[in-house]
Design a protein that fits this description.
Elements: H1 4-21, H2 28-31, H3 38-58, H4 64-89, H5 95-106, H6 112-121
Helix pairs in contact: 3-5, 4-5, 4-6
Length: 124
């Protein structure tokens, strides 16, 4: 197993490589060995985790289209009435609004149709 110093040296070497050859051809992420698109994949994974939590905790009795519609409407209501204020203040609300805050912080809420498709992929 590599020591902490060896890891630091490796990261330092990769940073030097990026500084010397970076720009349009070599990104820091590529120099560090991340695959293209990793950030979008991580964001999508986090979005889906939040959506599953919303569905499981706040809409357990609903399935399919009804669940997608309820989540889309609730998210739209929060986005229109509280999101901008909460984002400006940096105050994350509790409960369902807090989960919508997290969701909107990483991107937009999927459409009702996309939500329905997502819940077909993870019905729970």
């Amino acid at each position: 197993m590599a020591s902490g110093n060896e890891h630091c040296a490796w990261v330092g070497d990769r940073a030097v490589l990026w500084l010397q050859h970076g720009g349009d051809k070599l990104t820091l992420e590529t120099a560090l060995g991340f695959q293209p698109g990793w950030r979008a994949l991580a964001t999508r994974h986090r979005r889906n985790e939040i959506l599953r939590e919303i569905a499981r905790i706040y809409f357990p009795e609903l399935q399919g289209r009804k669940r997608a519609r309820a989540i889309a409407r609730s998210a739209g209501a929060y986005e229109g009435n509280g999101w901008l204020r909460d984002r400006r203040s940096g105050r994350r609300p509790d409960g369902l609004k807090g989960l919508f805050y997290d969701l909107l912080s990483i991107g937009e809420v999927p459409s009702e149709e996309r939500l329905r498709q997502l819940f077909c992929d993870f019905p729970g």
